[in-house]
Write a structure and sequence with these properties.
single chain; about 300 residues; alpha/beta; seven-stranded parallel sheet; 9 helices; 7 strands
Amino acid sequence: MSSRFHQQTVWISGAARGIGRALVLELIREGAHVVFGDRDTDGLKETVALAEAIRPDHVAAAQCDFSQPDAWDALEAVMPAHFPPLHGLIHNAGINPGQPFSDTTAEQYETTLAVNQHAAWYGIRKALPSLRQNRGAILLINSIMFESTTAKASAYTASKGALAGMARSLAVELAADGVRVNSVLPGYIMLEPPDFYRSRVPAALWGRFNDAFHSEWEPFFQNAQPLRTAGTPREIARAGVFLLSADAAFITGVELPVDGGISRVGLFYNPMLCKQFPWTDAMEAWLADQLKMSGRLSR
C-alpha cells in the first residue's frame, strides 16, 4: 500500500456510500487518516468496516446532516486525539430533488443549496486554520451538470454553479497560503440508481426498482457516453485523491471532468439524440405503474 498521505488527516462529507465511500477507501489505501460523516447510519458502519479491513485505526465517522451548519462540528468531535494534523477537506455530500422547476418547493431548493454548496462553505471555514498551517488542500465534488445541464435540475445546477464559483475564487485567494482548491466533475457513475430516487421509491419497491435499473436501464447510461462504459466511484476517487495529493502540488483552480468524454460531445444532452436514451421516462413510467398498483392492492 502507498503512503502518499502518511501522517495526514482528511475530512470528508457524505461518505456512507458511492463516491464518498470510494474516497475514504482510496485515501486509507494511500496511508491517510480519514474522518467522515453522513446521515446514513448503516452506510457509515459499512464504510468504517471496509476501511478498518484495509488499514486498522485510520478512520472515524460521525452521523450528521450536512444540510445543517454544525455538521462539521461532529467530525471535529469524533476525530481521535492521536490522529495527525488535518491536511485535506473533501466536500462530497450532495442531493438532487430531480423535479421540474414548477414542482420544486422552496424547502427543496433551500435544502439542495444547503447540502451542495453551503456545507462546503461551513467546512472550509472550520478547516481553514489547519489547512493554512499545514499547506493543505481542498477538493470539491461538483458535477458535469454544472456546465452541461438538463431539464428537471434547476436547483441542483444552481447549487453546483455556486460551488464552482466559490472554488474558483478561493483557489486564487488561498494560493498565497499554499492551500490548493480543486474540483472533480463526475459524469454518470453507475453503482446503484440515482440518489434522488431513494426519496421517491417506497422501501418495499426498492429491491425491484434496483433490479430493473441494472437489467433494463443501466445500458442506456453506458451507451450515452463516448467510452461506452459506466464510470465507477473508484475512478472518481482516484482522480480526486490525485488532486488532493502532493503529486498535484502545482495544480489549483482546476475543474476536472471524469465523465467518459460526455462533456466534450454533449451526447446525453443533445435533444436530437435523447430519444435514443429514454431511461428517465422509462424509470418514471415504471415507478408510476408500481405506485398505482400498490394503491389498488392496499384498498
